[in-house]
Design a protein that fits this description.
lyase activity, EvaA-like_sf, alpha+beta, EvaA-like, seven-stranded mixed beta sheet, 24 strands, globular, 9 helices
Length: 446
């Protein structure tokens, strides 16, 4: 175990040097093991893993109601699991230094187990996944959190993974690319750009528990205080009222989606070995050739989605009757399992809206980007899932508005407390992955 966060960073550097990695772009039609069908879809020759196909959207409750796009169809459910063990009474989490081809910095801190079904059933013919036995029945240890959670609805079609936290008391052998980290160490690491990967953050959102405040720390962060077990709450709405709001938002949804051949997707072009939007916005589909000496398979190729620009994921916060609330939106996503999920106040790639009229901008985007530094409580750049997305990064923000500020709240937005949001994390298809990721950053504030 490490005594300081600087030691963790040094260990990651050592693990990078101890292994060999090579990632290079290749044309989509030259991906080893992948085929482009007559309909344009890109699929693995085994029929496993995933397919890049097309999706047609009509009637979405968004500024732009109709569009077509490429999307990842990966119907199988993976496992994202973190082992927890107490050392001298202090919970520690077993994370790994995992290489993903889409990571901007190659290695990031990943869950104990991060594996698709194709991977952990060894469809690739490679090595087995370490520690898998703790997360598959009959498992060893006590399950603290277990939920099927959605992935990025903008790029995945109805994709879900099983998020799990399992506590053990037995001795666990620690392999070279793994380490135990405490709650406070992870808290510090979440303030470092591109250090803790997306899959770790979504699992950690289910591991946040209220803790007693340190009475000798009157200057404690207000968001940490909002989670303290001894801090009373006065929510603006009850849980029942929030569920009614969410159900009504889903009932209002008029979005219809239909899978279509990738070759038929309008507004997108296949040239120079990749697929991109005709206006050079949104994202591209690229091919990668990968070598990694410490992965289950040492060499492979795959298609990936590469966003065009840095995204913004932000919650606006405000005190209402003395209790901190976050502004949550019921967001329609092209590939979301249930069409609508609870999302951060702002979630977009601003470059995708360039040259569009003001009314086409996402609500509250200007308020977030123009907020003075005195109102910004959290600001860090984190990567999205590096196994499917190439150099995908979002700027995660928390902006606290003055208590007397007047906010016009549209019908698909609502104020919730931090604890109420964390309660909804326990259930499937409520909070989207971006909201869970940002909650993890806030819940682990020191």
């Amino acid at each position: 175990m490490f005594s300081a966060v600087a030691d963790v960073c040094e260990w990651l550097t050592e693990r990078h040097k101890a292994n060999e990695y090579l990632v290079k772009k290749v044309p989509l039609d030259q991906l080893d093991g992948w085929r482009i069908g007559e309909n344009g879809d890109i699929a693995h020759h085994t029929g496993r893993f995933y397919t890049i196909t097309g999706l047609s959207i009509t009637g979405a409750n968004r500024p732009i109601r109709d569009w077509e796009q490429p999307i990842i169809d990966q119907p199988e459910q993976g496992i994202l699991g973190i082992l927890v063990k107490r050392f001298d009474g202090v919970p520690h989490y077993l994370l790994q230094a995992k290489m993903e081809p889409g990571n901007v910095n190659m290695l990031q801190l990943s869950p104990t187990v991060q594996a698709t079904k194709s991977n952990y059933t060894r469809a690739h013919g490679g090595k087995s996944v370490p520690y898998l036995e703790y997360f598959r029945s009959p498992r060893r240890g006590r399950v603290l959190f277990d939920a099927l959670q959605s992935e990025q609805g903008a790029w995945f079609l109805a994709k879900r993974n099983r998020n799990m936290v399992v506590e053990v008391v037995e001795e666990v052998p620690v392999l070279p690319d793994f380490c135990w980290l405490s709650y406070d160490q992870i808290s510090e690491l979440l303030h470092i750009d591109n250090m803790v990967n997306m899959d770790t953050r979504t699992v950690l959102s289910g591991a946040i528990v209220p803790r007693r405040m340190d009475k000798d720390d009157p200057g404690a962060d207000p968001f940490r205080a909002a989670l303290a077990s001894d801090t009373p709450e006065r929510p603006r709405y009850t849980e029942t009222e929030l569920l009614i709001w969410f159900t009504e938002a889903k009932a209002r949804s008029t979005m219809e989606r239909q899978r279509i051949p990738l070759a038929k997707v309008s507004g997108w072009v296949h040239e120079n070995g990749m697929i991109g939007h005709e206006d050079d916005r949104h994202f591209t589909v690229v091919g990668l050739s990968v070598e990694a000496s410490n992965r289950e398979v040492s060499e492979w190729s795959q298609p990936m989605i590469a966003p065009r620009g840095l995204g913004v994921v932000a919650f606006l916060a405000k005190r209402i009757q003395g209790t901190l609330h976050l502004l949550v939106q019921a967001r329609t996503e092209a590939g979301a399992f249930d069409s609508v999920e609870m999302a951060p106040t702002v979630q977009c790639i601003p470059d995708s809206y360039r040259e569009l009229p003001e009314e086409s901008l996402p609500p509250f985007l200007n308020e977030v980007l123009s907020a003075p530094a005195s109102q910004v409580r959290f600001d860090c750049v984190h990567s999205e899932e590096g196994g499917r997305f190439y150099h995908a990064q979002n700027r995660y923000l928390l902006v606290e508005l003055p208590e007397d500020s007047d906010v016009d709240v549209p019908e698909n937005f609502v104020w919730m407390t931090l604890r109420q949001l964390l309660g909804f994390v326990r259930y499937s298809n409520h909070l989207n992955v971006e909201a869970r990721n940002l909650l993890a950053c806030l819940g682990f504030l020191r």
